[in-house]
Structure formats: C-alpha cells, structure tokens
Amino acid sequence: MAGFVLGDNQYGKAETRLVRVDRDTGVHRITDLNVSTTLAGDLAATHLTGDNSGVLPTDTQKNTVYAFARDGVGEIEDFALRLARHFVDSAPTITRARVRIEQYGWDRLADHSFRRGAGTRTATATYDGTGSWLVSGVQDLVVLNTTGSEFHGFHKDRYTTLAETTDRILATAVTARWRHAATTGVDWASSFDEATRHLLAAFADTHSLSLQQTLHAMGERVLANRPEVAEVQLALPNRHHFLVDLAPFGLDNPGEVFHAADRPYGLIEGTVLRADAPEPGLAWW
Amino acid sequence: MAGFVLGDNQYGKAETRLVRVDRDTGVHRITDLNVSTTLAGDLAATHLTGDNSGVLPTDTQKNTVYAFARDGVGEIEDFALRLARHFVDSAPTITRARVRIEQYGWDRLADHSFRRGAGTRTATATYDGTGSWLVSGVQDLVVLNTTGSEFHGFHKDRYTTLAETTDRILATAVTARWRHAATTGVDWASSFDEATRHLLAAFADTHSLSLQQTLHAMGERVLANRPEVAEVQLALPNRHHFLVDLAPFGLDNPGEVFHAADRPYGLIEGTVLRADAPEPGLAWW
Amino acid sequence: MAGFVLGDNQYGKAETRLVRVDRDTGVHRITDLNVSTTLAGDLAATHLTGDNSGVLPTDTQKNTVYAFARDGVGEIEDFALRLARHFVDSAPTITRARVRIEQYGWDRLADHSFRRGAGTRTATATYDGTGSWLVSGVQDLVVLNTTGSEFHGFHKDRYTTLAETTDRILATAVTARWRHAATTGVDWASSFDEATRHLLAAFADTHSLSLQQTLHAMGERVLANRPEVAEVQLALPNRHHFLVDLAPFGLDNPGEVFHAADRPYGLIEGTVLRADAPEPGLAWW
Amino acid sequence: MAGFVLGDNQYGKAETRLVRVDRDTGVHRITDLNVSTTLAGDLAATHLTGDNSGVLPTDTQKNTVYAFARDGVGEIEDFALRLARHFVDSAPTITRARVRIEQYGWDRLADHSFRRGAGTRTATATYDGTGSWLVSGVQDLVVLNTTGSEFHGFHKDRYTTLAETTDRILATAVTARWRHAATTGVDWASSFDEATRHLLAAFADTHSLSLQQTLHAMGERVLANRPEVAEVQLALPNRHHFLVDLAPFGLDNPGEVFHAADRPYGLIEGTVLRADAPEPGLAWW
User: Fold this and answer.
1) Is B160's Cβ below 8 Å from some Cβ in A?
2) What is the ipTM of this complex?
3) Which of A37, C156, C228, D142 could join A61 in a cystine, given CB atoms 3.0 to 4.6 angstroms apart?
4) With contacts defined as CB-CB under 8 Å, which chain B residues touch C18?
C-alpha cells in the first residue's frame, strides 16, 4: 500500500529455558539459564509479502541455544556473545543480533544437590558484524536498610502532604546493568561477584538523603572499583514502608511497626558513567 | 568523585490505582486507571548531594493524580497530557514529564453494576515545556486464528528441524501502540475503538505466511483507516500451539488436538509508519 | 522405619494445556482447556520402596488427556468425568480419580478467528469406582457495584477504627463452585450460562449490608433457579476501594475519587445449600 | 427463602503486610510477615439479614495485627496463636480463629542492612476456645538433584510412551507443613531450622526411584529427628527437566543439556505421620 513504510523491526525466540549439568568430576555443576535471542536485518520481504527466505526460524534459534550448550556454556557473557556472532555470521540477512540471558543462582547442598538462591544474574551481548557490546547485570536483588535514610527539604506545592523524615526504612528491588568497556579480557564471574558486592555495600553504607543519592552512590562505587565497567544503569523501585499509626489504640510507634505497601511505588532510574566512557554503540537498545 | 558523571535519569510514581465514579445521572459510569508518572529535569543535586530542593516527591505526584480526577478524568489521552503539562509547568526543575495510563475496561451489568472485560487501553503523554506527544495503545488483547496461517520457505541451516506447514494455529497477545500526529482535535474514544477494531479485523482476515506479515498488515490497516495515526508499533508474542502426535495411540490428528505451549515463544516486533510521518520527538522513549 | 505411617496421598499431572479445534463446518469452534488429573489408591509401594508397578505415570495421564480429545471434548463436565472413570477403571491400583478442568472463553471474531474473553469456567469430576460427583464453577469473574452497598452496625472493640458507611463501592473477584445433585441428565452448557447469569444478577441487584449478605444472596439465587444444583460455595475477596481524602487540597469528594487497594483484602467464604441436599460424598476434597 | 441453609462459612483479612524492626541494640533485627486471619462462629445474621452486630470488621483484624506487633512479634507460631486466642476470647460470636503467617527471610548485610533470601517460613495457628493447634512449614524451597534419581518399572497402558530411565534430574519446589504435637514447650526457631535442614538433607541424600519415595523419605526424616512433630504434609511439583535430543545436529547428549519445562508438571502430595500421632483436630482445614 502506497505511503506506508516498515520501520524498526526485530524478531527472535524469547525465554528458552536451558539447564546444563557439568559432570566431568564427581562434584556436579549446574548452569540454569533463560535465553532470549533477537535478530534484525533485511527482513522487509517477510513483512511485506510473506517471503520467508531471509527468516531464520525462531525454532532454529532455540535449537542453536541447546546445541551450543553441548560444548559447555561457560560464563553467560561469553555464551551470549558466541550466539550473537553465530547468528549474524551465518544467516545472510541478519545484520544484528542481541542475546539476553538470565542466570538463576543455585547454592550447593551436596555433590549433586542444589538449592535455588536469591537474585538473578543477567548478560546481554550485541553484535552487528563488526562491533560487539556486553552488558552485565543483576535483578531481583531485594535489599532494605532499617535506618540511615532521610527524606526532607523537597519541593512542595499545593498537593504536597508528605511529612519530612529524618529516619525511614529504605527498601528496593535492585535492577542494575553495567556496560563493559570491552568484550574480552575480563574474568566475568569475578567481575559479576565484585560488582554485586559493591552495589550491596554502597546500598548498606550510604547514609541516604534520597533514593537518588543512594542510586548514584551505588553506580559510582562500581565504577570506582571495577575498571572494566564503563557505565552503570540502575532502576530502583521504592518499596514504601509506612509507619503504622498506633495512637488510636493508645500506643506509640517509635519506628518499629510498619506496613509494607504494594502500589503505588516510587521508581528511581538513573545512569552513572565515566566522563571518558566509550560510546555505548548498540549496547543499550 | 572525579571522573564520574550522572547520565540519563528520571523518577516518578508508578501504578497509582485510581477509580473514578461519575454519578451525575442515575446511570453511573466508571473509570478504572493505573497511572504512572515520570519526571526528568535538573535533578543532579539530589543524586550528588541529597539536596532535594528540586524534587517534587513521588507522593505529591500521586496526590496530584487523585486531585486532578476530582474535576473528571475524561479520555485518558487528555488526562495524561493534563498531568504532564502540570508537572513541567509548575515544578521549577522539571523539564520533561511522561504520564502513562492503563485503563481497564468494564462492561455494564446494570445502572450501578459492572463486570471487568478483556483487554487494556493505554495512553502515554509526553510534554517538554514546548512540545507534546501522545501515544495510544492496547495490550492484553489475546487473539487466535484456527486456520489461514502458513509458515514455509524459511532459511534453513544445520540447526533447523522445524517442519514447513501450510496450516497452523496462529495466536498472540497483542501489544500495540500508535503515535498520533497531533495532540488535539481527535475524538480519542472513537479513535481507540476504531484502531482496535481495525487491528482485530486485520488479524482475522489476513491470510498469513508469517507473523511478521500479519504484524505489518495490522499496522497498515490502522494507518489506512485512521488519519490521525502517524505510526503503529506492535509486539506480538507467538503463542505456539503444537499439533500433538497421537500416532503412538493409533490415532490420526487432522489439525484438531493441540498443546498450547508456554515457553519459549517467538517474539515479533515491528513498526509501520507513514512515509511522511512527523518526527516522533520524545514520544517513544 | 518403625512407628511412621503413610497418610493421605495422591498424585497426578497438573495443568495440561489442551486446545481442540472443531473443523466439521466452515465455522470453526475452539475449546481451550487446562486439565489437571489427580489419582489416589494403593500407592504405598512407591512411597515406601520405590516399587512403581502400581504407578500410572503422570506423563501417561497427560497423553490420555490428548488422546481422549481426539474423539471430541464436548462439555468439560462430561470430559472430566470420562477421564476420571477411565483412570479408575483401567489402572489396577487407582481407586479414586479427580479431574479438574479450567476452560478459557473465546469470543468469535470471524469464522476462524477468536478473541479471549473474561472469566474462566471450571469443572471438577470425582469418581471412586462406584459413585461419581460433579462440581461446576466460575472464577476470575470481577464485578463492581458503584453504590447500593452499606456497612455499619458491626461489632467494635478497642482496635476498631473503621467508619460506618451507608454508601461504598463493592467489588470482588468471584470464585464460585456449585455441586450438582447428579452427574447425568443436565445440559451443562446451559446450566453454566444460567448459573453465572444468576450470580451476576444477584450481585447487581442485591442492596448489600455486608459482603456476606451478598454472598448468601448469590448462592440462594442459583439454588432457587437451578434445580440441578445442590450446593453453592463462594469465595469473595473484598477488593477495597477507599475514598481519597481530597480535603488537604481544598476539594470535597462526594463518592467520586477512589484508591483501589491491593493488600490486605477482606476474604469472605461461605456455602449455601438445599436443606435436603444429598451428601457431598467425595465432591469437595 | 425456604429450603436453603447457610453451610460452612468464615471470613477474615488476608495478607496484612507487617514489617517490624527491633532496635533495642545497635544491631537491628527485622521481621517481615504476611498475616492472614480467618474467623468463624455464629455469623448467620450477617449472611441472612445483613445484621452485622456479630461481625468484627476485617479492618479491625488488620489493626489488631499491627497493634499486637507493638509488643514484639517473637516467633510466628507464638504470634499467630496469640492473635487467634485474642479473636475468639474477645469477640462474642467468634468460636474459631485461624491465623496463617508467611515469614520472608532476610540475610544480614550490616548492622542495619539486609538482603532478602530464598524460601518462606510459614505458621498456622488454630484456636476454638478450648483447644489450639500449630502447624509450621516452609514453601518456595526450590531444590534439584543432578543425578541419583531413577524412574522405571511403572504401570504401562496403551497411552504410555514415557521411556524408563535410571538417571534423571529431579527438581521440585517444596511446600511442606508439619503439625506439632503441642503448642508450647518448643523452641520454634530451632525447630524450623532443623526441620528444614532435615528436609533438604533427605532430598539430597535419598537415592530416588520415584518422587513419591523422596517425599516419604523427607517426611520420615523430619519425624525421626524432631519429636515435637506429629505429622508432615508435603506437596512436591515435579519440575521436569527433559534431555534435549541433539542427534539432529550430529551431537550426543550424555545427560548434560536439558530443557526446563513449565507446564504440565507432575504433582505429588502425601502425608507421613507417627503411628501414635494425636488427632489432628482442627489443625488442617
């Protein structure tokens, strides 16, 4: 139809659930992943006429994830990049691949036994035939400070009723992503562990005047300690804990009894980066 | 700390649940919304030093949503834009506001009684002090064709095992967003109803050679019939229905018995726009 | 180990997702089910020694669901009972089978096209080798009255702060189950439609002094109109809608602006039955 | 209406989210609970006529949860029982109260900082004016064995296609509840820790011929080691991990690459109890 054009488009297989067991010693290791592949390129034909000659089926993408796991997964950054390169290098129409992986942590109970832990490690690799980009991250990391958090001096208008406070609970479910300056030469496992450790430490030891300040401190802490990281992006929902008014029952409440609310919630999002960080390229879309 | 800079950032109140009842006649009307406000501007101080003098609390944003509803909500496009303008025009540091609203549909049972229906209407308004943008949409719109869908002629590699088919079930949960060319002069309610009707009609009457082709047909159909729409963005998860192999039980299966799978799923995303569409501005981030 | 005994136990395959297409005419019909089978009987051996000779695998139960659908599903009450009888009658150790089915509704868009609707129909059949029982139901049926609901005159103690009200929003997500007096001789489709219609009508036209009163009226209405029903069991979460205090903003709020809360919520559960209802037998566990 | 009677009924406040901070020393402690209260008694009046004089509002129940927390929560078994007793002893019409609590675990990061852990502790107290019962439990405890699990020798019929195996992954999300023989004289915190430890140990070190056998071993292990426990009830969804067929790609798969499936799933439920266990009373409804 004249006058209409195909704009940005991509396709892929979302949430391929792969579990790999490494049995080379009597002490098994387990890698538990959720892999999503997204491809882009010269895909106009399938959109406009249903000519699929340039379409690598999403079912094939799933098969590829499983087949590549046969040789071992290793760190998810490497596995994601290996898959992204494969799709672009082997499928004629595909010019850009993004592979996003969630890794669920398991704690060891015994040589062959595991218990699921908290928090999810993530990695996203992008490849466009020439350049590659890696973003690591963590999500579902729920943290809480019982004190050391204030909020006052804010802008007030006719709709402001919030009381200022010098002592509140601060709680959030961290979603963090950090872009690496390079895609090689990094010990990804150690980098993840250390970045997460610094995020947690900054959350815990920052005396907070706002969740924004805590966010910035967390990003800065990672950058200050991890030279391989160029940029840190954080999304912090403010899980409000409201002090319950016990006065109607003849009771005081000196910061002890709280109602944990569901909705609405504040949502603070921000990025901290090196002044001399390399361009993000295709890393963030 | 030297060498680190604050990058993109924004904050707001997510998921304020507002229900408004219009009681001006004996036949009540109900408006059931989930409102998320997001503000950006000169917010460096709170990030860097915890100086909150430029921060309009997210609690105030919630209050504002409720207070503005006192005068009536009207169409969600107008309500979102009214809120976005208020935040930018009244808060000194705020230079950009985005308000996203989900509206849950209710079917009438009686003058004062309602039943929740299927599908969610959405609207997102953005305002930056000079320009404004509106995006309408629908989500959770689950549709299925029992025939009229083929998939063959695709690119094959060593990992391809998918059989070609000339008759399959095609099912998806539509998430569609369409950007309007202007923010005034449109009957938003009628525009939404008609855009949704065209999406459904195009899904139903397109003989599909790929979900990408169906996606493009859906976007094109809206553009061809709704001059107020500049661009249509669609995300279509492919809810795979696999024909069950009944041969081990001595039974054939002529396209009648299917397993509805959860994960993984294909995910097709694309945009269709007018060749002469105005620039999207801040509408899409 | 001496001194310990195996108590109640059962096993089965949960959530087999079955979609059947009836193509006998040009106007296709679709049946979209979630089937869970649960078997009990002489299963001590597998618990105590891992001797599985009496265990019909859950994988086989899943296969059976698909294979039986080849002949047509019909009404879910009949399909559930047919499956339950098969398991007890054919597996030597199985003395009791329960099959629970959820059916998702689809509205027709065209001869081969459908859109998912709201509300889920349910049926549970139980068979123990001699007797059979059927329970039909509906869930995810969300309803709201904007007026005609009061709550006052309640018991008060030192922890009571709730204000009495003569006009509030009453909203709930109905989960209803009704036990049939017999397992044959009923037009299940019509019975379901009518029972649901009566539930909705009673919710809408009962002037409510408590959600318990509404619950009772809903159960009674079904019993009064559907002689095939012996008993109605209802679970009604009270989806609280709180009037927002707009006074701090200089505004009144005459029953128009509400906050829809998530948690906590009241939960009202009750049963209404015929004075001469037959014994429930195994129907409810 | 003649001929219809009110059957079993109960009501309460579900999911009151309570967080208590103990600040008596510089090392804070946190108790994070989800409390649901359910009351039953002489409640016919509110059902039949809307006379609420016997109804203690669910809002009051919520207030009571918060007010009682002012004195400290302690172990959830004690807190649940204290609340249950209060409702029956103080509300004239209430003859039975059940209080169910979920406790979310937090790991310490620093004196005032915590990170949410995996697994949820539960307790349910029931009181009927004379007797009381306590059930403790754990849920969301996800565990996996990479080997040491077989499944063969099962009953086969014409719908059986499952291959027998002598080595499979066994994974489940444990929901366990154990009934205590008494409601006093037990160190609840230690009892919970030890019961959970024994569940995990039995899962890990039982060479499994069926998930039923593992279930029984887990229940028996708790009983053998915890004299305060009279009965253990377990629900174990079988989280199937299917070996991926890599042969089409020219690869073998010696137990290394698996697809983690969502639905359907096996569901194994069973109870292990002492031969001389006291009657469960009202503990399990």
Assistant:
1) yes
2) 0.97
3) A37
4) 257-260
